């Protein structure tokens, strides 16, 4: 494996240098197909801008929010705000709010409610990416390479609805490690959380049901 790269991490443990290298994996196309042409997009938890940058190239005015200044340093070409999402109030409205990267599976129900409330304060259309329950029930350690990046998932631990695991990422630049915890949500629990934030769920955007669209009630 490559040399260890212990550089900067976001508050959730994501390795900043790796995410600066990580290309999008179809997310911009999913979002673009789900919203009108030139619709403005706010991404909550935008990281280095890997989703927003292609959306901007597709003609969407984009704004990203992240609490990590190290992440946002790699998105200097975009309109960004450094802030905690839970307390965000930009006094602006957007055509679509994006909550990607499985943020809705945060271990804390209170944080999930706060994330969705922030989305509602800023728009009437919501696009959410989540880990379906089947992922929690079936995920096992793996070691695979995609697009030149080696992904190795290991040290999986289950504790009720919580799953903790470590992912190693290896490229020609080195190796990074990220230990994360995610909460298993059922579909009714996801829809209930979205509804409590003031949205009505509209339907799935992908055949694997990992992206949910909703509109303001």
Q: Write the CATH homologous superfamily of the largest domain.
A: Vaccinia Virus protein VP39
The geometry reads as globular
The CATH architecture of the largest domain comes to 3-Layer(aba) Sandwich
- Which runs of at least 5 residues are low in confidence (pLDDT < 50)? 1-6
Strand content: 25-35%
3D architecture notes:
- The longest helix has 14 residues, at 109-122.
- By secondary structure, this protein is of the alpha/beta class.
- 25% of the residues lie in helices and 32% in strands.
- It has helices spanning 16-21, 27-34, 52-57, 69-72, 109-122, 133-138, 187-196; strands at residues 41-44, 62-66, 79-82, 96-99, 125-129, 142-146, 149-159, 162-171, 174-183, 199-204, 211-216.
- The strands form two sheets. A seven-stranded mixed sheet has the order 3-2-1-4-5-11-10, with helices on both faces.
Could you provide a short overview of the structure?
The chain has 217 residues and is an alpha/beta fold. The chain has helices at residues 16-21, 27-34, 52-57, 69-72, 109-122, 133-138, 187-196, and strands at residues 41-44, 62-66, 79-82, 96-99, 125-129, 142-146, 149-159, 162-171, 174-183, 199-204, 211-216. The model is unreliable at 1-6 (pLDDT under 50).
Map the helices and strands.
Elements: H1 16-21, H2 27-34, E1 41-44, H3 52-57, E2 62-66, H4 69-72, E3 79-82, E4 96-99, H5 109-122, E5 125-129, H6 133-138, E6 142-146, E7 149-159, E8 162-171, E9 174-183, H7 187-196, E10 199-204, E11 211-216
Parallel strand pairs: 1-2, 1-4, 2-3, 4-5
Antiparallel strand pairs: 5-11, 6-7, 7-8, 8-9, 10-11
């Amino acid at each position: 494996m490559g040399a260890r790269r212990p550089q900067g991490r976001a508050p959730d443990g994501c390795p900043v240098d790796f995410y600066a290298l990580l290309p999008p994996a179809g997310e911009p196309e999913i979002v673009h197909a789900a919203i009108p042409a030139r619709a403005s997009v706010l991404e909550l938890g935008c990281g280095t801008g890997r989703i927003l940058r292609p959306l901007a190239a597709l003609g969407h005015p984009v704004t990203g929010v992240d609490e990590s200044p190290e992440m946002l340093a790699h998105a200097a070409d975009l309109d960004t705000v450094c802030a905690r999402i839970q307390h965000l109030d930009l006094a602006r409205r957007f055509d679509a709010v994006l909550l990607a990267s499985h943020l809705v599976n945060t271990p804390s129900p209170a944080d999930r409610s706060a994330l969705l409330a922030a989305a509602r304060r800023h728009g009437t259309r919501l696009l959410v990416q989540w880990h379906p329950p089947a992922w929690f029930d079936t995920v096992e350690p793996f070691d695979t390479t995609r697009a030149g990046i080696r992904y190795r998932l290991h040290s999986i631990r289950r504790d009720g609805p919580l799953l903790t695991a470590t992912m190693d990422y290896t490229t020609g630049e080195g190796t990074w490690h990220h230990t994360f915890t995610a909460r298993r949500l059922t579909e009714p629990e996801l829809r209930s959380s979205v509804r409590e934030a003031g949205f009505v769920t509209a339907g799935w955007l992908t055949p694997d049901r990992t992206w949910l669209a909703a509109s303001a009630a």
